């Protein structure tokens, strides 16, 4: 479950700020988080 994975690593809130995400995380991690962003309303 990707949402559970993000919650475990405290990434959920970061999905709301793509600019911060780009500065804070690697490209591979950013791609995973950005894929979840369109579904953020489900959080």
How would you characterize the overall build of this protein?
- The protein has one domain.
- The longest helix is centred in the C-terminal third of the chain and has 10 residues, at 27-36.
- It is mainly alpha-helical and 43 residues long.
- The protein has helices at residues 2-8, 18-24, 27-36.
- The protein is globular and about 25 Å long.
- The mean pLDDT is 55.
- The two termini are 13 Å apart.
- It comes from marine sediment metagenome.
- This is DUF5615 domain-containing protein.
Q: How many structurally independent domains? A: 1
Helix coverage percent = 55-70%
List the helices and strands in order: HHH
Determine the N-to-C terminus distance: 13 Å
Taking Cα atoms only, what radius of gyration do you get, to the nearest Å?
9 Å
Please give the number of β-strands: 0
Protein name: DUF5615 domain-containing protein
Concise structural overview:
Helices cover 56% and strands 0% of the residues.
Keywords:
DUF5615 domain-containing protein; 3 helices; globular; mainly alpha; 56% helix; 43 residues
Task: Describe the secondary structure blueprint for this structure.
Layout: H1 2-8, H2 18-24, H3 27-36
